[in-house]
Amino acid sequence: MAQITAGTWNFDPTHTEIGFTVRHIMSKVRGKFEKFEGSITTKPEISESTATATIDLSSINTGTPDRDAHLRSADFFSVESHPTMTFTSTGVLEKSDTEFVVTGDLTIKDVTRPVELSVEFLGEGKDPWGGTRVGVEATTTISRKAFGIDFNIPLEGDKVMIGDKISILITGEAVLAA
């Protein structure tokens, strides 16, 4: 069983990144969300632990301002009417001392779908500022169309400009609340 101190852990935004990758024509585009908040509440029985996150969709950054503006528009996230994406865990399955499967509900544009995150526990320890931190890395793949994000442009040969599968990678540090 993993040895994680029971308590509430708040993600440190300066040491956490929520990134994604999506197929675009013949390559892949990478991006991240720069504003978010989230927490993990660990329990002595790890299966009773929970996690939540709220992501500010207007903070999307792919390194191309025009593309980011288009992603904020009604073609994609509709951030004026749906400013956030949320995740709430529904279960935790411990696979080993460092590997977990966290199930939960992901909501984008008022559409909620179940997702499974493969989570690697990277460790727990003291930081130089007197706090206690944990490190985690989580991955999942979702269908953007399942969340009502189906904008696309057809290309020659039955191809499309934007892939349906979105790979998500969360690399984070969280600080134990006092």
Describe this structure in words.
It is a single chain. This protein is mostly beta strands and 178 residues long. The protein has one domain: Beta Barrel (Lipocalin), CATH 2.40.128.110. Helix content is 4%, strand content 58%. It is built from 1 helix and 13 strands. It has one helix spanning 65-72; strands spanning 7-11, 17-24, 27-33, 36-42, 50-56, 60-61, 84-94, 99-108, 111-126, 132-143, 154-155, 159-160, 162-176. The strands form 2 sheets. The protein has an 8-stranded antiparallel beta barrel. The longest helix has 8 residues, at 65-72. The radius of gyration is 17 Å and the shape is elongated. It starts with 6 loop residues before the first strand and ends with a strand. The mean pLDDT is 96. Pfam families: YceI. Belongs to the UPF0312 family. It comes from Mumia zhuanghuii. Residues 8-175 form the Lipid/polyisoprenoid-binding YceI-like domain. This is Polyisoprenoid-binding protein.
Task: List descriptors.
mainly beta, 8-stranded antiparallel β-barrel, single chain, elongated, Lipocalin, 58% strand, 178 residues
